[in-house]
Amino acid sequence: MASGEHERGGSLAGLPGLARIAASAWWHAAERGAGLTLGLGSRVVSRALGSSPASADHEPHAARPERRRDPEASRATLRERGEELLTRSADVSLDEELHPAYARILDNLSPDEARILRLFATKGPQPAIDVRRGLPLVSELVAPGLNMIGAEAGCRHPDRVPPYLDNLNRLGLIWFSRETLRDINRYQVLEAQPETVEAMREAGRTARTVRRSIHLTPFGTDFCEVSLPLDAPDASTQPGG
Description:
- By secondary structure, the protein is α+β, with helices and mostly antiparallel strands.
- The protein is built from 11 helices and 4 strands, in the order ααααααββααβααβα.
């Protein structure tokens, strides 16, 4: 018999028969109630902490180690793909006319960006100017990359031309050059635009323009020739376009 039972037996021994039976029944009921309360409490605490009741009643299992990629296996996979490309390049019977990136590039272009590419492909490099203030060696940029590409390409959202150009540059289709185009008249037209005039006014007495240009890359030129209908009429110039 457990020590608790010895203590309970000793404390009930001096009671009359009926009283001892009633007290013994009350004692057992109280023990069962306490056990139920403790069990319910442990489940409530376990759920509050995010663990299941079963995990609260048993020893916790060791956490599963996080699965990590084997860097050596990744290198081996890349090496296999590289070897496959070199093997295909040596196969004279294999004729790949299209660059595999062209389809993915089309998925990353907006309609306005396609218009901009067509403008470059059909009209050549485009002029751009920076408006700066201050001396040539100590100057501050006021308005970078002003251009007329949105209007020339017929973009539906000409205000988005700067991010359009950034995306085309990111895709390797265009590049920003410090060189000036030979046709100076194109810069004079650009410098007369309201946006340029406003930037010059903001720059103050020391305002000046720096002439630049934007070009297709060789990769961009090939992409346009392969992927865009450069000789098709512009839908925006058609009736109802």
